[in-house]
Amino acid sequence: MKEYKIYIGLEVHVELSTQSKLFCGCKTKFGAAPNTQTCPVCLGLPGVLPVINRKAVEYTIITALALNSRINKNCRFARKNYYYPDLPKNYQISQYEEPLASGGWVEIKVNGKAKKIGIERIHLEEDAGKLIHGEIKEDKDFSFVDYNRAGIPLMEIVSRPDINSPEEAYEYLVNLRQIVRYLGVSDCNMEEGSLRCDANISLGEENRMGTKTELKNMNSFKEIREGLRAEIKRQY
Asked: What's this model's pTM, rounded to 2 decimal places?
């Protein structure tokens, strides 16, 4: 069997521990009654005037400095141009071409060997709402949406494809969560969705990645590791 190199890149989404949302004054408390923490701004109604949350920007800059990243002098928000069923305005406000920070690294240790995992970018975006599909027997034919989470500040940390095994991915996530928790910018409570991860993986030759696949919205480091192992086996 031909030997391939494993390339893994992780997109980690961290809900910031601010008292209000990214562009409005709505509360961000977890577990509130559905659709009770919303306003015309986070619902994206016509004519609203969003105002950036200063604390969310500060938290992202603090994290970027801790991760050895470069703070960009200019950053710009844009909107994703594909449909979001759990955002009333049908698109997400994020950063792409001009993120808040670029570069940096997280150091890990696997089998006694230290390694730096490069960071591509760190940017701010708004979280989406929550879709609920027939959780109880009486509602099995219905779907519901809770917009309380829509607009909560979300910091996305995108690694470079420097991770070469599921074990390295696991160590990277553990170290990154530890740093973020120490900084106090997020509780990283995965059971409440405060930290979620998309894992991109491809197998290819040296310095040449293959076709990429993605594991979406994972909220367990163990499951990410096992999912990557299964995907490596499938791609082989």
From this structure: 0.93
